[in-house]
Amino acid sequence: xxxxxxxxxxxxxxxxxxxxxxxxxxxxxxxxxxxxxxxxxxxxxxxxxxxxxxxxxxxxxxxxxxxxxxxxxxxxxxxxxx
Length: 82
Known about the structure:
This protein is an alpha+beta fold. It is 41% helix and 17% strand. It has a 4-stranded mixed β-sheet with strand order 2-1-3-4, covered by helices on one side. A hairpin with a 5-residue loop joins strand 3 and strand 4 (60-63). It starts with a strand and ends with a helix.
């Protein structure tokens, strides 16, 4: 991957909720979404437990529920890079 992203799939209410919570917590820091079903390797690795937030090194930051404390260091790095 080319940077941090939120693995999602169309129609996933938890994914939409996670994305909304990210934007409420970190306004102005865009969080790209990636459909997990478009990549067979990602689907195999994460397909059953989404949303999953991955950092710029493809490491899992958190999954299913938004965790502000876990996400904050990533948001700070993303804010510096923008």
